[in-house]
Amino acid sequence: MAEHEHVRVAVIGSGFGGLGAAVRLRREGITDFVVLERADSVGGTWRDNTYPGCACDVPSHLYSFSFAPNPDWPRTFSGQEHIRAYLEHVAEVHRLRPHLRFGCEVKRMVWNAREMRWDIETSGGSWSADVVVSATGPLSDPKIPDIPGLDSFPGAVFHSARWDHDFDVRGKRVAMVGTGASAIQIVPSIQPDVEKLVLFQRTPAWVMPRVDRAISGPERALHRALPFTTQLRRGLLWGIRELQVQAFTKHPDELGLVEKLATYNMTRAVKDPALRAKLTPDYRIGCKRILLSNTYYPALARPNVDVVASGLAEVRGRTVVAADGTEAEVDAIVFGTGFHVTDMPIAERVVGADGRTLAESWSGGMAALRGATAAGFPNLMTIIGPNTGLGNSSMILMIESQLNYLADYLRQLDMLGEGTALVPRPRAVEAWNHRVQERMKRTVWNTGGCTSWYLDAAGRNTTVWPGTTAEFRGATRRVNLGEYEVLRAPRTGPASDRQAPAAKAAHA
């Protein structure tokens, strides 16, 4: 690789968002691009999360690209290994391998106003690009709380997204910190093997049954022979979830029946009244993500599991101490404490037109026009940006909507001519976010009485989209140039080196 390489588009990350962007670029006839990936393979969060029991809580046929249907999903809710294999397959079939650059973690990215490009420094070399697509994803950088004494713990310590496979849990005493989507899969997976499992629970979760089953051979054969049946299945799954949105976004009181079903799911598995009391949430269902499991509650009822209804507060040698004073001796501490969602580390490395980092620009809360572009950051688009998350459906639907926006963004740049950039007007960003936040006020995520990872440090919901996926697709179908300022390269000064014969990304 040359010391410095200029490409039309640089994509950061090779999870669903990054690979989806790469496929869309090729479909738009753009082959002058690279995908910068810090790891040594594709997959994003589905490469990084290899903990026991890791699986998706969205049905497989909906949690996949519409342009890359998979008739051979083995289960209705597929496991991590099958989703990662699917992403590897997408990279292969859509001829993305020549564009992938592994071992290239973005260290710093600066907008070069004179050359109208982004200058990118990575751990594997330097690039420049006319347009950057940031697809690092919100679930990529694990968050471990600052616990006094943790550094001196003599046993194994790791986050669920960085599972230590060299540590054998069999016969060990394990502390599980957190009760989110990862924890409810880990707990029943390791409970039969450990000597003791201590679950530190700050807030109990609402858990519904997981209607999972193997997809039969005849079903898969039908999907292979008649592809429209896969589309029909996907459409049905999508439609059901679209109908649920009103309850989450406009009428949270309608979720009372769902709450009763979740309560029944718990009471049939947990007979001990004291344990049931610990596991019963005091907030409206849906305020935090509704979790799916048939095995979590039965595992908690086993004699080798203790539920501590308090967060981990301190570590003294091998002793873990809860905020309520409960103590336990353990051999390992596993953190299922989520990710840097509202304070993504990539934002600290991106320097915009005014010399400020994206993190500085977002110090008052993340904000982006249509969840994609930020004021002061020309030709930078984020996939799964602010307020594009979902509480009840598949993020792949949102990603594909943002890919439509990306495609039209690039077409607009083509029409404007070489040496141009688009940057959203601050008033457009403010207007968009005002509308989003006004709609957010009545949603279950804001009114349900909980504190969730959807909220930033100021209590503002900068994560979730307060509407249907169809609404979002309509809002991102086209770029409205009235919402953008057009920047043009300076006409004076030495000739730009943008046309120098630097090495290009591999072409088809």
Automatic annotation (TrEMBL):
Coiled coil: none
UniProt cross-references to SUPFAM superfamilies, sorted A to Z: FAD/NAD(P)-binding domain
Keyword Transferase: no
Positions of the UniProt region annotated as Disordered: 489-508
Entry keyword Flavoprotein: yes
Top-rank taxon, per record: Bacteria
InterPro entries: FAD-bind_Monooxygenase_sf, FAD/NAD-bd_sf, Flavin_mOase-like
Keywords: FAD, Flavoprotein, Oxidoreductase
Family: Belongs to the FAD-binding monooxygenase family.
Protein name per the record: NAD(P)/FAD-dependent oxidoreductase
Organism (species): Streptomyces macrolidinus
